[in-house]
Amino acid sequence: MATPNYGYEKRQRELAKKKKKEEKLRAKSAPARHSDTYVAPGGDVDNPAVSPASGEGAPG
Fold it and tell me: Which residue intervals make up region (Disordered) (predicted)?
C-alpha cells in the first residue's frame, strides 16, 4: 500500500488558502476603483464637477 504524500496535501491547502485570500483582496478593492461615479437610486449620475444647487460647472 502506498503511503500518503503529506507534503503534497499541505502544498495544495496552502495554494487554496492563497487563492482565496487573493480573491478576497480583489473583491474588496474592486468597489473602491469605481467609487468616482455615484449612481443615485433614481438612476441619476452625480457628477462632482457640477454643483447641484446652481447646475453650473465648478469655478476654476
Answer: 1-60
